Amino acid sequence: MPSNINSSVPATGSASTANVRANFTAAKDEIESLQMNTQQVSEAEIDAGTGTTPRIWAPADISQAVANFSSGVDPTPSFLPLFSAGSVAATEITTGGIATIHAHFDDEVLWSLPAVYLAKDAVQCVLPFHSQYRVVLEAMPAWFRLRFRSAGGRTTDADYIAIFVDQSARLSYLQREQLRTRVYKWVYETQAQNIVTHNPWGEYGHVHHRILSEEVKAACIAYGKSCWFSSIYVPEKPGPIPGGDDGADYEEADLPDAEYVLGRIVAADLEDLRDVFTSTDADYTGSLPNTWTWYETHPATNNGGAGFVDWKYYRAVNTGVEALSANDNSDIATLQAALSYFGCPSETCGDYYP
Hints:
With 354 residues, the protein is of the alpha/beta class. It folds into 2 domains: 17-65; 78-337, Rossmann fold (3-Layer(aba) Sandwich). The protein has helices at 17-39, 43-50, 59-71, 91-94, 107-111, 113-118, 131-139, 142-147, 157-165, 176-189, 202-205, 207-223, 267-283, 326-337; strands at 83-85, 98-102, 119-124, 148-150, 194-197, 226-230, 232-233, 251-252, 260-266, 308-318, 321-322. Strands 1, 2, 3, 4, 5, 6, 9, 10 and 11 form a 9-stranded mixed beta sheet that branches. Strands 7-8 form a two-stranded antiparallel ribbon. It is globular, with a radius of gyration of 23 Å.
């Protein structure tokens, strides 16, 4: 930081006690500020993704962390490119920076991994963090931790279990207005111009995904940013998820008029990140639910050995302007109608998100 110490005073031959005191005061304040910065990472930085354990950092480490948090640190994925041309050039999504906003901790891996690689911020926005989430985050690769942001706050394990097992207990936390506040804050504050989020049908109908898609799109229109979502569609059929599906059947929803780029989800990298979740779950002996909430089956890891899958990422908003046609919105409504709401106390969720 710039020094406030004035080396020209006290003047030679006419030392001023007041000037000397002022210089010593400035030096003391600056030294104490540096000492505070090197003691440990702040709670805010921990919430932003550095992990659960405060650590002693030198000034150079702090400077590097600030740079990483501000600009993102691009890892080297197993396959390139992460995005390639579709109906529009890949630069449509990579120019201006990318952020992801997802409902739950693991959604960014399942649905938007190519965007997470390049993200300035990877924001988990719906449910709060409990102790096992933080254990998982601490075990994640550095490039993932540096991107990850928890916008849902923290909670005790007991309180999390209460809202997990009793859907009505989530009502006070998940009203639309509360979620909207968190979404608008992050869309506004991220340096990224392109926001990748859930698709409007919620991949498999999850109401948290649907509501987040609506709010992120609205925030992008409000703040002049661009909104993107994947073409992933998990059709409803009998299975272990109530209302549901078995997670083994993926399709690609087609929106013929919508602009898109192709985003590559890499099998090896998805497996590595998923293994952090599942191995942590295997070692855990408490009462919290598993941190990995999906299945092992994913097109990237079960596609005949190609090692990746390329999904379309449709553009819903282009620098603050609605980018979907009337035909696209009609097709989206059809996709939504084909999926039952998952995660609601009622079929319509009217009481859930009034």
